[in-house]
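Course assignment 3, question 2. Fill in each field.
Student: A.L.
Task: Predict the tertiary structure for the chain below.
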Amino acid sequence: MTRRTLLAGMLALRIIRAAKPVASVAKIEFYSDELVNLHHTLYGAAWARRPRSGTQRALAGALPAPLDAPMTAEERAVWERAIDYYDQHLADRDLLFGRGMDEIKEAISRGELPEEVREPLSAAGPIYRRYFWTAHDRRNREWLAATSAKMQSIAGDVIPKLEKFYGMAWFSSPVRADIVWVGNRQGGYTTTKPPHATIASGDPGSADWAAVEIVFHEFSHVLIERIDRTLDKALGDRARQHNQLWHVVQFYLTGAAVQQVLKSRSIAYTPYLFATGLIDRAWPQYKKAVETNWAPYVEGKADLDTAITGTVKMLLP
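Answer field:
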């Protein structure tokens, strides 16, 4: 790549940085940001090349559609080199937990180009804009229009329930959610310092009311911290063995909040944890303990200490 080509790409990316929120609901500002999407698209494209693509061992979600376009030979070479770079240097890192990936995402969302990804993003940026961004942005905005409208209609009732269930106040200042065409295999992930969710509009499990629950779930990662600490203390030296229990509880609590509000409006809804079979697939060992002890809690028939004590008692021999 010539210096002239790199500088042209970086100039094009400076123009991209005019991103503004597409929607705002309950202190959550939703973005469809071109550079954040490019970063995740290259990550997803790298995984799409791999034999493990689409399996439980993949770190990226499946591409919602092939990345086919009538590129010139030069454009194709530049695009493929950018994917090569992500495949060789970034794709083995989890977007949330992998060596600096959260810092890279945060910097990109601030309009910065971290040195580690500056060259591939600068080179691929104009190509992404020319061939893919219009369709990806349209998909994101369609998802946002449907999801934000539904979320707006119930947020006033769901948020007080979340505050009660978690014993934590909802956000008083704006927090950010980036909507991307393709994301991680789970369809969404959240960093908490600062609170920042990334949600894939192309994830097949993220539609209708489930999409609303996913948004609330992602930001419940901030709310669950107190319960997480209390569970760890109750588990004692077995906390590491049960290091995903807090996440199951989080799914349960946020799903219950959405379900209860929708039920009050005569809308039948099965929370994501159960509708997708996630608890049976990923955490069957916790199903009985969580259902037995947390159902009374969300129904107001038991307090938090009772729910935690009962859960731990069922799990520890």
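Instructor remarks: Residues 133-166 form the longest helix (34 residues). DSSP finds 13 helices and five strands in the chain.
Grade: pending
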